[in-house]
Amino acid sequence: MSTEESVKRCSRCKESKPRAAFASNAAARDGLQAYCRECWAAYHQARQLAKGRNVRPRVETPEGHKFCRNCEEIKPHSEWHRNATASDGLATCCKACKAVKGRRGHLKRQYGMTEADRDALVASQRGLCVICLKAPAVHVDHCHETGRVRGVLCFNCNSAIGKLGDDPDAVRRAAAYLEGTSWKPTLVAPGVYQLPS
Length: 197
Fold this sequence. Notes:
The protein is an alpha+beta fold. It has helices at 3-6, 37-50, 95-111, 115-124, 155-163, 168-178, and strands at residues 7-9, 16-18, 65-68, 73-76, 139-142, 149-153, 186-189, 192-194. Among the domains are: 3-50, Wheat Germ Agglutinin (Isolectin 2), domain 1 (2-Layer Sandwich); 61-109, Wheat Germ Agglutinin (Isolectin 2), domain 1 (2-Layer Sandwich). The longest helix has 17 residues, at 95-111. It starts with a helix and ends with a strand.
């Protein structure tokens, strides 16, 4: 391919650019758009704005980086999940923003509450776990039978009541054990012990 064939002149900016700077267009004689990619993007953005549509800003990003529209930060490709269907092969928002969206969706699906609802509940508990009253409240706790939200607990307390099967009697026995008044086994038959009433 000669030098003349490896470049094309953009009919908008009038600059000669490599063929890779033009998007393909099967209807065109040379198989490329008349405008270079930069001019086409500017032209398309101006038309969308003229129609009153919301257009995302064009942000110049260094090689190997992408602009996140949610947090409005430029981040390296390592901060993005892969998306094979996207033109650049990356997700539409960065990993951090996707995690925030995921937590928000989980709250809504699992507990029927918004982040504001959860924050109000945490504030009503003065930011502390309602069981240990020491650690920050971070895990929403709910009744597994009714689905009703009971409060917001720390990781350890939430895990503890889960391991005790959400059984109030098991929790009371655990408290009695810690206080040193645990049940004394009463032998009723060989190898059979009875719990005190």
